[in-house]
Amino acid sequence: MRLLGGGLLTLLLAFLGLPILLVGIVSFSSATYLTFPPPEFGLRWYRAYLGARDWLDATWLSLAVAAAVVVVSTLLGTLAAIGLARLPRGLRVAATGLILSPLIVPGIVVAIGVYYAYSRYGLVGSPLGLVLAHSCLAVPFVVTSVSASFAGLDPRLEQAALSLGATPFGTFRQVTLPLIRPGVLVGALFAFITSFDELIVSLFLSGQGAVTLPRRMWDDLRYAIDPTIAAVSTLTVVLTALLMGAAHWLKRRGERLHTP
Amino acid sequence: MSEAVAPALLAAPRAPGLNWRRAVPLLLVAPLLAFMLALYAAPVLAMLSRSLLEPAPTLAHYIELAGDEVFLKVFTNTLSTTVTVTLGTLLLGYPIALGMARARRLLPLILVIVLLPFWTSVLVRSYAWMVLLGRHGLVNEVLLALGLLDRPMRLLNTPLATQIAMVHILLPYMILPIANALRQIDPSLARAAAGLGAGPFGVFRQVTLPLSMPGVMAGVLLVFVLSLGFYITPALVGGPRDMTLSMLIAQRVEQLDWAYAATLSAVLLATALAIIALFQRVFGVGTAFRMSAR
Amino acid sequence: MEGASVTLSGLEKRYENFGAVRGVSIDIRSGEFLTLLGPSGSGKTTTLMMIAGFETPSAGDIAIDGRSVVALPPHRRNIGMVFQNYALFPHLTVAENIGFPLKQRGVPKPERARLVEEALELVRLPGYGARQPRQLSGGQQQRVALARAIVFKPRLLLMDEPLGALDKQLRESLQLEMRRLHADLGITFIYVTHDQEEALTMSDRIAVMNEGRVAQIGAPEELYDRPENRFVASFIGESNFLPATVRGREDGVLVAECAGTLVRATCAGTPATGEAVTLATRPERLRFVDGAWPAPPPANRMPVTVTEAVFVGERCRYLLRAEDGTALVLKEPSSAATRRREAGERAEVAWSVADTILV
């Protein structure tokens, strides 16, 4: 019975994990076309990626857009999360609804909505358009993360600071901010990954002038599959895993700060 | 009197840490609200309004939809895919969640296996299934090697491919809420039930399963709503004839038929909201989205 | 240093339609150790929060040394405060925590370090400055919180259930330490707790609070020996309540009939003859008449039946029933020399007039 359960669990976990592992294996293939198992292993496709101008341009653009999204969404999202908890109830519910709605509204609806409006202002095919739209999609992650660290903050710590003579602003700077910092950093990481992986909005906003990495991958998958994309995929998975590891570590550290 | 005092005290607002002047919170939230209203809400609403204003204020587009065969076919296909995928994730996800809740030493490994795909882009995961299910993909190669097939079978670009890939992509959204609910069950309850004479299956059916239902409902809601709007995966691994609503919308935008695309968008959005409202009403799981924000 | 005097007059705090504090007036003397004692929801913490400035009174006034502080924000009241669960800043070291109020006041660094070390010595934690709060035990964290609250030499120290999270032994040793600190510093302490033993051990005076009001205020012995109402009599210690009918007065002593016998009680008021009243007496002040009694036997006597006898180590606890069915409790110091009574046995109990109070 127990053995059966263990076997079933292993099988299911294999279903979850193997496909991604497979992409990693294919990326080290030396064959010119997609085949499994690879006849020989090599770094051919990583070299192809690093030698391809369009792939690298797309990578840099994605990194730059994601970095800008981190700045915009973390700044706006953190300020909002601080204010949100102290808003009167009716206003708070309405504001929270708007801020979190990108989690619910189907991606295609957001994508064609921003495409429809941004095209009138010349924001299609420009990195700026991508930054603005991606920031809206990333904000919910920042706000939830910062709000969570706020909720975990003992109000008595702020009261203690005040009773010890710190001004309200001094309390915020010396006590509140250092304690929610892990939450802010986790939110920033989520924002980065949200933008870096985003495809649907980019499909409509990229145009010819602002091709992001996912957009470049999409074009490749639709028209000419060669294993370069396996190499690129593997690299993005590794980058994502590293960032998530960092986020996990920060979260743990934040929890430690909150339970003295 | 003292009975009346206790709940009233609980309802009393918690002591504010800082004495904020009334305007400060609003000033902090205002920049983000302005940003999202201008760059996200207004664009989406403006686009949606095309469905009601083309060429003059009208409901004609919605009425036409009821008799539009393409729409009806795509809508049914989307719903049936969504239901299949939701059931599939539930069927595969529950045992994994159960394993996660019971694992001790292996928990970190299981967590990595569940969370890594969760954080890998949909694009990469869809690509993985193209590799697996392709003409010369692993599945075909294995079946050929085992002698179960003479020639490679067509797996990619079929409805089945879409369903398998979507189940794979959405599984973590089902696993995490269920595992969360299972972890919160007091283990002494299962021991108590066993002590009262319930067998392992009886314990599961009468204690574990009912107590994990909030997690199941949250997972079902999440997967249902997310798969309703799927675009990338069906476009890459699905068949040319089985379109989803999202694909039809994209196609109509490419043809610059904004009124039709907007009408479809409104229907898609309304369906998602209706399902969320329904779940909130019936099962009270509206917070699912915030809990597992991605 | 001279402690601050604090005057609460007609203090009220209402939340929507519920009054947490409903008219509290207390004069706290300079250098006094005053405890606000009450069950949860009695308004004691809300009162403390209003003194600290974290809650704004709905009505009434708070004056420190005769000057109203109601309009003053908390950070300008210069009041030391020790919180439940200590509220040490987890991102700062012990020294940085204690130096925090000095930094806010612009004390230069070398001076700050000296004062911090002095405060650490005062709470008997010398050399702990470099540690992180989470590396300390609960009791040590409590001392750091105390050091932080007094390092800037406030003249008033507020404490909100500071020992609530500690185990019994540690609590008792810290209670003594707080008393010592209070004597050394000479400043005013206002202490909130729901633990009556803690309140009785440490306070100069206790204000017993119930449902947003002060039920009684007085020295520990006063509250224990002469509770003014049923709430105080049952909240502090244990009491037997005897329903009785007033029969008259004799030499300034009230005479009442209770379970068929006449009982005498000390009484400040003048209830009319025939009025139904309740008398209270402490279980440890009842004695069996044939027991080891210092002569002469006290005046109040009553025949009872033992319904249950429980041995609790240092004493025996008897549940008794009077002839009219009133249940009584009697606590007797245990001794191998005393005969243990059995359930069903008949006996007579006695207690002194001074230990009988009208509530």
TrEMBL record, chain A:
<protein>
    <submittedName>
        <fullName>ABC transporter permease</fullName>
    </submittedName>
</protein>
<keyword id="KW-0472">Membrane</keyword>
<keyword id="KW-1003">Cell membrane</keyword>
<keyword id="KW-0812">Transmembrane</keyword>
<dbReference type="Pfam" id="PF00528">
    <property type="entry name" value="BPD_transp_1"/>
</dbReference>
<feature type="transmembrane region" description="Helical">
    <location>
        <begin position="97"/>
        <end position="118"/>
    </location>
</feature>
<keyword id="KW-1133">Transmembrane helix</keyword>
<feature type="transmembrane region" description="Helical">
    <location>
        <begin position="60"/>
        <end position="85"/>
    </location>
</feature>
<dbReference type="InterPro" id="IPR000515">
    <property type="entry name" value="MetI-like"/>
</dbReference>
<keyword id="KW-0997">Cell inner membrane</keyword>
<feature type="domain" description="ABC transmembrane type-1">
    <location>
        <begin position="59"/>
        <end position="247"/>
    </location>
</feature>
<feature type="transmembrane region" description="Helical">
    <location>
        <begin position="130"/>
        <end position="153"/>
    </location>
</feature>
<dbReference type="InterPro" id="IPR035906">
    <property type="entry name" value="MetI-like_sf"/>
</dbReference>
<keyword id="KW-0813">Transport</keyword>
<feature type="transmembrane region" description="Helical">
    <location>
        <begin position="183"/>
        <end position="207"/>
    </location>
</feature>
UniProtKB/TrEMBL annotation, chain B:
<dbReference type="InterPro" id="IPR035906">
    <property type="entry name" value="MetI-like_sf"/>
</dbReference>
<feature type="transmembrane region" description="Helical">
    <location>
        <begin position="216"/>
        <end position="237"/>
    </location>
</feature>
<protein>
    <submittedName>
        <fullName>ABC transporter permease</fullName>
    </submittedName>
</protein>
<feature type="transmembrane region" description="Helical">
    <location>
        <begin position="74"/>
        <end position="94"/>
    </location>
</feature>
<dbReference type="Pfam" id="PF00528">
    <property type="entry name" value="BPD_transp_1"/>
</dbReference>
<keyword id="KW-0813">Transport</keyword>
<feature type="transmembrane region" description="Helical">
    <location>
        <begin position="24"/>
        <end position="48"/>
    </location>
</feature>
<feature type="transmembrane region" description="Helical">
    <location>
        <begin position="160"/>
        <end position="179"/>
    </location>
</feature>
<keyword id="KW-0812">Transmembrane</keyword>
<keyword id="KW-0472">Membrane</keyword>
<dbReference type="InterPro" id="IPR000515">
    <property type="entry name" value="MetI-like"/>
</dbReference>
<comment type="similarity">
    <text>Belongs to the binding-protein-dependent transport system permease family. CysTW subfamily.</text>
</comment>
<keyword id="KW-1133">Transmembrane helix</keyword>
<feature type="transmembrane region" description="Helical">
    <location>
        <begin position="106"/>
        <end position="122"/>
    </location>
</feature>
<feature type="transmembrane region" description="Helical">
    <location>
        <begin position="258"/>
        <end position="279"/>
    </location>
</feature>
UniProtKB/TrEMBL annotation, chain C:
<dbReference type="Pfam" id="PF00005">
    <property type="entry name" value="ABC_tran"/>
</dbReference>
<dbReference type="InterPro" id="IPR008995">
    <property type="entry name" value="Mo/tungstate-bd_C_term_dom"/>
</dbReference>
<protein>
    <recommendedName>
        <fullName>Spermidine/putrescine import ATP-binding protein PotA</fullName>
        <ecNumber>7.6.2.11</ecNumber>
    </recommendedName>
</protein>
<keyword id="KW-0813">Transport</keyword>
<keyword id="KW-0472">Membrane</keyword>
<comment type="function">
    <text>Part of the ABC transporter complex PotABCD involved in spermidine/putrescine import. Responsible for energy coupling to the transport system.</text>
</comment>
<dbReference type="InterPro" id="IPR005893">
    <property type="entry name" value="PotA-like"/>
</dbReference>
<feature type="domain" description="ABC transporter">
    <location>
        <begin position="6"/>
        <end position="236"/>
    </location>
</feature>
<dbReference type="InterPro" id="IPR013611">
    <property type="entry name" value="Transp-assoc_OB_typ2"/>
</dbReference>
<dbReference type="InterPro" id="IPR050093">
    <property type="entry name" value="ABC_SmlMolc_Importer"/>
</dbReference>
<keyword id="KW-0547">Nucleotide-binding</keyword>
<keyword id="KW-0067">ATP-binding</keyword>
<dbReference type="GO" id="GO:0005524">
    <property type="term" value="F:ATP binding"/>
</dbReference>
<dbReference type="InterPro" id="IPR017871">
    <property type="entry name" value="ABC_transporter-like_CS"/>
</dbReference>
<keyword id="KW-1003">Cell membrane</keyword>
